[in-house]
Design brief:
The chain is built from ten helices and no strands. It is an all-alpha fold. The chain is elongated and about 65 Å long.
Length: about 260
């Protein structure tokens, strides 16, 4: 019975850790392709007169690139949901709340990414084929969906909730020792730097709002590296099996587990 429980727990931990790594790496690859072919993310701050013709010029391959960007990021939804159980802390109310926050952040980001697949193509085609009056109307429609689906849902709320998740997980790591402490400190640093990117987003609605130009690149890059590090730490973490008997729990905690050496 114990052998089965251990095997199931190890399997869940491996799935969670590998999905954190795979989701982040594949998203980075897709985002790199998007950056090289569509000047993302800088093009997000360009007017529709620049963005829509560039989107049309990208053709079907650009739409599929956006599709890949969306769903490689969407992979992270699964390990975020599995993380409490993988760490043997399913009953931790703080981690459970953070899990809902993290899952919501992925869903909001998916909305922001997938509008380039389901909303923008029709607008771009109408803009390219329209007369000046039609182009003006399409430009207004573009800005409305761009600010709502992109700046508000995908960037502002999606990023804020992702940062809230990573900060909470990092603090729990430092307070409980469930993973190596350096993972917690790295998560806090990456999250705070990533938070500064909100200035660039708020500046789209509040002209003159202070912007830290490199916050988006540095913050998002460090945050992605931290997610990979979190995945590796989960893969190397010793399995913790909950028990209903406090005495047994204390004995289990005191006895070293030779199959999971600490690093």
């Amino acid at each position: 019975m114990n052998r089965t429980t251990t095997g199931d727990g190890d399997g869940l931990r491996r799935v969670t850790g590998w999905l954190l790594v795979i989701g982040t790496v594949t998203f980075a690859m897709a985002a790199t392709v998007l950056s090289s072919t569509f000047d993302w993310p800088d093009i997000l701050r360009e007017p529709p007169q620049v963005v829509l013709p560039a989107f049309v010029a990208g053709g079907t391959s650009l739409v599929w690139t956006w599709f890949a960007v969306a769903w490689t990021y969407g992979i992270l939804l699964v390990p975020i949901l599995l993380l409490p159980a993988a760490l043997g802390r399913s009953d931790d109310p703080v981690l459970r709340a953070a899990t809902f926050v993290g899952a919501a952040s992925v869903l909001l980001s998916l909305v922001g990414f997938l509008r380039w697949v389901f909303v923008v193509p029709a607008l771009a085609d109408s803009y390219a084929a329209g007369d000046p009056t039609t182009q003006a109307a399409v430009a207004a429609a573009w800005m409305a969906q761009h600010q709502f689906g992109g700046a508000l849902l995908g960037e502002h709320l999606g990023q804020l909730l992702a940062i809230g998740w990573s900060i909470t997980v990092s603090v729990l790591i430092l307070r409980t020792g469930m993973l190596a402490r350096w993972v917690g400190w790295a998560g806090l640093v990456a999250s705070v730097l990533y938070l500064f990117n909100q200035g660039d987003i708020l500046a789209t609605a509040v002209p003159g709002f202070p912007v830290f130009d490199l916050a988006g690149f540095i913050g998002s890059s460090l945050w992605a590296i931290w997610v990979i590090a979190l995945g590796v730490a989960v893969l190397r973490a010793p399995l913790r099996r909950p028990t209903s008997n406090p005495a047994v729990g204390r004995m289990t905690a005191a006895a070293p587990d030779p199959s999971h050496p600490r690093s």
